[in-house]
Amino acid sequence: MARKKSLWSELQHELERRQRAAQAREHANEQTIKQIMRDHDHAGRQATRADTAERKRQEQLAHEAGASAAKTMKAQLDTRLAELKTLLTSALDTPPQLSFAMLKQTAAVPPFEPGVSVVTLSGPG
Q1: Containing domain of residue 29, as a range?
Q2: The dihedral of CA 62, 63, 66, 68: what is its sign?
Q3: How many Cα atoms within 13 Å fall on the side-chain side of residue 30?
Q4: 73-95 confidence digits (pLDDT tens)
Q5: How far apart, in whole angstroms, are the C-alpha atoms of residue 65 and residue 58?
Q6: Distance CA 24, CA 97 (A)
Q7: Is residue 25 one of the residues assigned to a domain?
């Protein structure tokens, strides 16, 4: 025959079972909180890495745009320099259209006309 348990032992057994269940829930909650914290930290590190990568990408794009603009400006400058060299060399190959004598001008100075001058002498008198 099965031995009958006393009410007190059944209550004690139920209390222990509930305490173990509460400890198990608390442990599970702690594990869940730890996992959430790990996930949060991991997400923060990923966000930081993504921000760093995006900042580097933006810097690279800005650098490439600056380099492209510099190449364009250099090409324009080289073209202009070639035009000026061509202009200078072509001008030196042709004889001058104006001579120094043609450029020399004599100043047109009007003749001196002093006009009438009145001199008053005051003496002892």
Answers
A1: 8-67
A2: negative
A3: 6
A4: 999 999 999 999 888 888 777 77
A5: 10
A6: 108
A7: yes
